[in-house]
C-alpha cells in the first residue's frame, strides 16, 4: 500500500510550482510594461510625424516655419544652455505652435502633445506641448538656432518630447523630463528620463537620448 502516491501534491511540489510561477510573472510583468511603453513611444512618433508634415506644409506656404508660442514667460530668456531653456522658460525651446491647429494644418490639438508625457504626468501637462525649436533660423529665431543642428546630417532638431516641470524649470541642466525611458545618475538613483522622440527638420523622427545625443550633435564631450 502506498498512500503517498495518491496525494495530489506534496508541499515541495507545490513550492516548486509557486516558484516557477513567480519566475514567469517576473518575466511577464516587465514585458507588459515595456509593451505599453513601446505603444506610447510609437503613438508619440506618429504625433511628431503629423507635426512634421504640418510644419513643412506651413513652410511651403509661408517660406518659414511658424513661430513658437511659449507656455510661460513672454520675455526672452537671459541665457541659453546646451539643451535649450525648455518650454516653460520662454527660451529657445517653446511650445509647439498652436497656429498649426488654428490654420487647419492639423485637425485637433492631439498631435501637439506627447502621449507618454500626458500619461506620466497626468493632470499637470495640459499646457505642455512638444518643445519646439523657436530659435531655429527658419523660425526667425535669434537665440542661436543654427547651433541646434545634428552635425551628422545637417538637419536641425525641430520638436522634441522634452518637458520642464514648473518646480524645476529654474534649475539649469537639472529640470528636464524625458518621457520615454529612465536614466540613473551617478548615485544609481533614477532621476531623469532621458529617452525622447525627436523631430528633425527634414521630417524624420528618432528616438534619442536627450543628453548624450544632443552633446554628440554639438561635437562636445558628454558631461551629464
Ligand atoms: Zn514622446
Strand fraction? 5-15%
**Elements, N to C (H/E):** HEHHEEEEEEH
- Residues in helix, %: 25-40%
- Given as residue ranges, the uncertain stretches (5+ residues, pLDDT < 50) are 71-91
Count the helices. How many? 4
Output the radius of gyration: 23 Å
Q: Work out the number of β strands.
A: 7
Shape: elongated
The secondary structure category is alpha+beta
As an assembly, this protein is single chain
Give the N-terminus to C-terminus distance in angstroms: 72 Å
Q: Which ligands does the model contain, each kind named once?
A: zinc ion
Count of all domains = 1
**Main β sheet profile:** 5 strands, antiparallel
Order of strands in the sheet with most strands: 1-2-3-6-7
Kindly state the mean pLDDT as a whole number? Answer: 73
Amino acid at each position: 500500500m502506498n498512500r503517498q502516491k495518491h496525494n495530489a501534491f506534496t508541499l515541495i511540489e507545490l513550492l516548486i510550482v509557486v516558484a516557477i510561477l513567480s519566475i514567469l510573472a517576473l518575466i511577464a510583468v516587465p514585458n507588459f510594461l515595456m509593451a505599453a511603453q513601446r505603444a506610447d513611444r510609437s503613438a508619440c512618433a506618429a504625433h511628431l510625424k503629423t507635426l512634421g508634415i504640418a510644419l513643412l506644409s506651413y513652410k511651403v506656404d509661408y517660406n518659414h516655419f511658424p513661430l513658437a508660442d511659449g507656455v510661460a514667460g513672454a520675455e526672452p530668456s537671459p541665457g541659453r544652455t546646451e539643451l535649450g531653456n525648455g518650454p516653460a522658460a520662454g527660451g529657445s525651446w517653446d511650445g509647439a505652435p498652436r497656429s498649426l491647429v488654428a490654420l487647419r494644418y492639423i485637425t485637433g490639438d492631439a498631435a501637439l502633445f506627447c502621449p507618454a508625457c500626458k500619461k506620466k504626468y497626468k493632470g499637470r501637462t495640459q499646457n505642455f506641448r512638444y518643445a519646439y525649436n523657436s530659435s531655429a533660423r527658419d523660425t526667425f529665431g535669434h537665440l542661436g538656432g543654427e547651433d541646434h543642428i545634428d552635425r551628422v546630417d545637417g538637419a536641425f532638431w525641430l520638436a522634441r518630447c522634452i518637458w520642464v516641470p514648473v518646480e524645476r524649470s529654474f534649475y539649469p541642466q537639472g529640470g528636464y523630463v524625458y518621457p520615454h525611458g529612465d536614466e540613473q545618475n551617478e548615485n544609481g538613483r533614477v532621476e531623469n528620463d532621458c529617452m525622447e522622440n525627436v523631430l528633425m527638420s527634414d521630417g524624420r523622427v528618432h528616438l534619442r537620448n536627450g543628453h548624450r545625443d544632443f552633446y554628440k550633435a554639438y561635437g562636445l564631450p558628454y558631461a551629464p
